[in-house]
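seq as requested:
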Amino acid sequence: MKKIGILHGKERSFPEAFVARVNSKNVPGIIAEPVRIDKAMQGVPSGYSVIIDRISQDVPFYRTWLKNAAVMGTAVINNPFWWSADDKYFNNCLMTQVGVPVPKTAILPSRDLPDDTSDESFANLGFPLDWDSIFQYVGFPAYMKPFAGGGWKHVYRLGSAEEFFQKHNETGQLVMLLQEEIVFEEYYRCYCIGGKHVRIMPYEPRNPHHLRYVADFSPSPQRLQEMTDIVLRINKYLGYDFNTVELAVRNNIPYAIDFCNPAPDAERTSVGEENFEWVVETAASYAIERALENDGHGDHLTWGEYVKRSSTKMQLI
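struct tokens:
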């Protein structure tokens, strides 16, 4: 019997619906359940052919447990090694090389010194930074947000350098991004599962949270295809099995605003019934597909084009 597990925290609607959907398909030799961990020893298989990870970004113990599971042959969705290495600034840098429009973005050192460091730890960092060049490059208004993380935590809209310094003084040890504001005509949140299944959802981030998937616009067939191609290209290079991409359309150009969401919102009450049904059905079918092809040996992780090309270059040296 091949087991499909889902690792989650307080989230309930999606994990419960996912487990029920997989089991309702009655695929011979396949069963789904919430992951159960009662011990963790090195080199011991997890007991799962596939695990969908919804919580390890907040629980370091889970993240390292998942890495052992992957080493022992589990297909972990998403790849915990890549997810541990990834961040929003790198993603933006990569997109500049693969033809995806992104806002102008600069990364900033933390306002406060990290623990166990001193001024001497930053001997290579110019002080003060060339703030004028940074501000000229990004422009105002701009958004400041953490280079890693999500959920709209610690996100600030800034109208001037004075506002920037005021808010940056409040960010403590967080490493922040300063990013060009894209004043958009339309905004879309796009699910991508398995690197091949895409759902484009009109989204209004300025609405209250429970109304953000309620919008009075929809894409033309041409825009729909264009955005689908962008979403597939992003996930092809990053290698995520389960991700959302946020696209802001300005002057008929879709800009990728946020596309590092490997545990994206899937709550029925926020995404709406139709979107929820698509996510549950697509995730269940994809997890079954991965379980059926998993022989229990070797690497069953998804690696993005960026890593695969780098690996190929190393092999040729």
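The chain is about 35% helix and 20% strand.
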